[in-house]
Amino acid sequence: MKIAFFSTKNYDKTYFNSHNENQNIVYFETRLNKNTCNLASGFDAVCVFVNDILSREVIELLHEHGVKLIALRCAGFNNVNLEAANEYGIKISRVPAYSPEAVAEHALALILTLNRKTHKAYNRVKECNFSLNNLVGFTVYKKTVGVIGTGRIGQAFCKIMKALGCEVIAFDPYPNQTLKDSGVTYVELDDLFKRSDIISLHCPLTEQTKHIINENSLKQLKPNSMLINTSRGALIDTEAVIQALKDKQVGYLGIDVYEQEDKLFFEDLSEHIIDDDLILRLISFPNVLITSHQAFLTQEALNEISKSVLNDISHFEKTQELINPVEI
Ligand code: NAD
Questions:
Q1: Can you give the pTM of this predicted structure?
Q2: Percentage of the chain with pLDDT > 70?
Q3: 149 lines ligand 1 (CB under 6 A)
């Protein structure tokens, strides 16, 4: 099949080329949106990532260009207009689980870095500044950790935090019995907000979860609590969290995703004027740690992603069916 690959980075090429046996892949660095979808003309499939925009308009154009498959090389699919794809008979595949532990471990990295300030210590010692002033952290052992969403990544994260000796409480409309048996307690969302020292978001972005962290929920948090988001940016109302940081309601914020990340993340903008005052305000806080959507970025995950995407494309080519469809 002829596949137009959008938002290509060097690591995508490396891993996809190493697993590709017979697909005809053309790599484009640009993102897929209404201005770039002409590039997909004559292709059977597009392979896209988290910030490619598959709106109704784009899907209509892809259909006109002959595209029959949207292969997402990620788990989330909030950037695709599913109804439009269904209407135009375009199938959608995704990679439901490539390495949930990779994302869960990145959430842990954010927690420990924010808490023990190793990023600041590293820079100090590089300049022969061996002072310990302002590096005081807290012991994570026995803290209460609230997990919102206990799917694949949430489960991996719960296991990690249990292993650190934390009390793990969780909220998910579909509680997981194995987690319950391991000592995780499911609670109502309000209760989770009130009791947690650390909250980590692992639910998908949907109409119900958009701004699940908002002015009201932030008011319920313990003062100085830690909020971690490795899921999707719009789970947090950015303006509300900035106010909560100013009010010291949130004492630490670690985010790998950001509501307006599509204009910023994955690019080197160090020589540009950033036209986003909210991210600049966030960057200015000493207790905010931002990574640019790298939680998935491990060798194991990249191997799994490329194998799974190529496998599904080959399966589609032979059977017109998908192994990992996004059900509409
Ligand atoms: P999953 O589908 O296995 O689990 C999602 C869980 O969220 C399910 O248990 C579901 O019941 C629960 N959920 C749904 N609505 C909820 C709500 N209103 N409140 C609480 N829980 C709710 O997904 P996953 O593989 O664990 O991935 C979770 C999310 O992580 C993805 O949707 C994606 O947005 C994000 N993600 C981020 C990265 C990254 O690199 N930062 C990588 C992969 C995935």
A1: 0.94
A2: 100
A3: yes
Shared fold status for 2-98+299-319 and 100-290:
yes
Q: Using the atom order of ligand 1, give the atom closest to the CA of residue 173.
A: 11
The Å distance, Cα 236 to ligand 1 centre, comes to 14
pLDDT mean over 140-162: 98
Give the pLDDT confidence score for residue 76 in this predicted structure: 87
Mutate to test the pocket of ligand 1, among 77, 98, 158, 202 (most ligand atoms within 8 A of CB): 202
Distance 65 CA to ligand 1 centre (A): 32
Residue nearest ligand 1's atom 19 by CA: 172
**Could you tell me the pLDDT band of residue 64, with boundaries at 50, 70 and 90?**
very high
Average model confidence (pLDDT) for the chain?
97
Structure tokens at 53: 């925009």
* 94 touches ligand 1 (CB under 6 Å): no
User: What's the CATH fold of domain 2-98+299-319?
Assistant: Rossmann fold (3.40.50)
Q: How confident is the model at residue 86 (pLDDT cuts 50, 70, 90)?
A: very high
- pLDDT of amino acid 328: 74
Q: At residue 110, does pLDDT exceed 80? A: yes
Class of the 100-290 domain?
Answer: alpha beta
Ligand 1 nearest-atom number relative to CA 155: 26
Domain regions of the chain by residue span: 2-98+299-319, 100-290
